[in-house]
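As a warm-up, study this chain.
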Amino acid sequence: MIKKCPSHGFFRGETCSCGDAGTIILTDEQTERLGRFISGALRHFPDDLGLAMNQHGWVDVEVLIDATAA
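Now compare it with the structure written out below.
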């Protein structure tokens, strides 16, 4: 699970290091599905999402975020 602490931001686990329970941002299933989608997009169909990789195989993170939000 990915959660967000109002004081410290995103974290994984039951509680933030400050003890706050946080708000659920993504469940374990959603995290897994998003990871698989991003891996597939980068490895197998970057052109379909308009992702242009540089000579080292990197994609601008803002472009990746925009592509996954569409």
